[in-house]
Design goal:
Length: about 400
């Protein structure tokens, strides 16, 4: 069988620990035998980031911008313990944070559904994708403890010196205050990333805030989304047969629970933080959650939502067997290959990506899975495979399909 050809390279961002081990197994067993894989390789493993003073992360983000599609392995975000472990020159920033800031993108997280791993919410039949705004609000707030009676105001001083004031509260005793902000530019990028992604996956987009209470702050989010939708996306949504739906956040939460899924839920920063953890745990497993960063101008970076699975890596280094789930990392590759295929009108490549995903799902539905899934499956007799055996089982399913 001749290998599928690629015309444009994918930006490949390698990573750390157990996911780095899975990364090379996936390439060796599931990609290279079938695809004449073209990638521009960036090693975002912590050692290389340290050696290059993190320049490699910046270079990889620039490459993602240039080519439009990247696939990323999980990476270590250094903390004090990692400083010693890897003898780091500095506590380098999170690569995801750096790449997200450079691409000005929004992260979309979606669960992978398989029969036998059932969501806790019984009517959820299709994935719910969370899009979380990644700038401002409570995460960049200024706070004060008010010790005793006194007046607290918001003051805006324009560049020409004029002041605008708004009373927050006349305190008669001790209390607390908080000042939040956001930027129209950031909200606009968030909105465009959400509309772009909804068109890409042909799913409805939901957005919700508390605009009835927060008549200026949250209402601006609502207005900016609506203005951009009307001016730039309404027509294409109509053609794609999808809708943009705005409602209040409490109404959205109630509707999500009663829905069957199958849409994108755009969330303000705090709502996204809380709701993405709820959605991922309710759908079953972090190891079955994909993640894609989408920039407002349509660059895509695919990855798994989980980390480097450090505990399994130390077992692996000790020569012990591991049963680490590679599905989210495989789906990062299939997502990137499908997008590359679509952009290059390479149907063979896009269809290979579909089959690779089907092979993963089929393997699990046949009862062959890693330990994390065996613990939660409704299948009474699962076969627990180690990390390599699981990938080989997927290869077998894939070969039967091709
Ligand atoms: P983690 O790597 O997501 O793993 C936490 C635990 O979840 C694991 O110990 C394992 O549980 C389970 N798990 C996660 N993924 C799994 C998989 N594919 N298969 C089976 N089990 C899985 O989170 P962490 O241990 O908190 O973080 C480790 C490193 O990852 C940190 O250095 C952190 O900075 C980094 N991180 C990177 C990213 C990213 O690059 N996107 C995201 C998050 C964290 P058991 O041990 O019980 O089996
Ligand atoms: Mg959180």
């Amino acid at each position: 069988m001749s290998k599928i050809q690629m015309t444009t390279p994918l930006v490949e961002m390698d990573g750390d620990e157990m996911t780095r081990i899975l990364w090379s197994m996936i390439k060796e067993e599931l990609l290279e035998p079938f695809v004449d894989l073209k990638t521009e390789y960036y090693d975002l493993g912590l050692e290389c980031r340290n050696d290059t003073n993190d320049q490699i992360t910046i270079d990889s983000a620039n490459a993602a911008r240039k080519y439009g599609v990247a696939v990323k392995c999980a990476t270590i975000t250094p903390n004090a313990a990692r400083m010693d472990e890897y003898h780091l020159k500095e506590m380098w920033k999170s690569p995801n944070g750096t790449i997200r800031a450079m691409l000005d993108g929004t992260v979309f997280r979606a669960p992978i559904l398989v029969k036998g791993i059932e969501p806790c919410v019984k009517n959820w039949k299709k994935p719910i994708t969370i899009a979380r705004h990644a700038y401002g609000d409570v995460y960049k707030a200024a706070e004060l403890k008010i010790p005793d009676a006194g007046k607290v105001e918001l003051v805006y001083t324009a560049e020409n010196g004029t002041e605008t004031r708004e009373l927050i509260h006349n305190f008669t005793g001790a209390g607390i205050v908080q000042g939040q902000h956001n930027l129209n530019g950031s909200i606009e990028s968030f909105a465009r990333s959400c509309f772009t992604y909804a068109l890409d996956v042909k799913q409805d987009l939901w957005f919700a805030t508390k605009d009835t209470i927060s008549k200026k702050y949250d209402h601006s989010f609502k207005d900016i989304f609506q203005e951009i939708f009307d001016a730039e996306y309404k027509e294409s949504f109509g053609k794609a047969g999808i809708t943009y739906f705005y409602t209040l956040i409490d109404d959205a939460v109630a509707r999500v629970m009663k829905s069957e899924g199958g849409y994108i839920w755009a969330c303000k920063n705090y709502d996204g933080d809380v709701m993405s953890d709820m959605i991922s745990s309710a759908f079953g497993s972090l190891a079955m959650m994909t993640s894609v960063l989408v920039s407002p101008d349509g660059c895509y970076e695919y990855e798994a939502a989980h980390g480097t699975v450090q505990r399994h890596y130390y077992k692996h280094l000790n020569g012990e067997e591991t049963s680490t789930n590679s599905v989210a990392t495989i789906f990062a590759w299939s997502g990137a290959l499908r997008k590359r295929g679509e952009l290059d009108a390479n149907e063979e490549l896009a269809s290979f990506a579909d089959k690779l995903e089907e092979a993963c799902i089929k393997t699990i539905e046949e009862g062959k899975m890693t330990k994390d899934l065996a613990l939660i499956t409704t299948n009474p007799n699962p076969t627990v495979l180690n990390s390599r055996e699981f990938i080989l089982a997927i290869r077998k399913s894939l070969e039967e399909m091709l």
